[in-house]
Input
Amino acid sequence: MIRQTVKAVVVLAFIGAFVLAGLIKPAFLARAVAAKPAFMDRYNRDSYSKAELRGKCTVCHIGHGGGERNDFGEAFEDAGFRITPRLREKFPDLFNKPASIPAQP
Output
């Protein structure tokens, strides 16, 4: 009888530890997100940014929740986190083309 009770306690302890580990493990695997809303605002306020892309993390990041940057995100960092004419030229799918200025006579 005591032997069965000890066995039951050991089995329950093992199951409890397994469940607890399953709940705690994801907390250690979660990556810290380094997306910066202020940087998104710089894109959103740019007069040439595409309206349909404003507010989208994927302008600078590979995934929707931030994390690893895409090519534009890397170039944006290299430009000092500023939107420059060069960035607009290099990534035309993210920006509207400036209106042509007619030649002056």
Remarks:
- Strands lie at 61-63, 66-69.
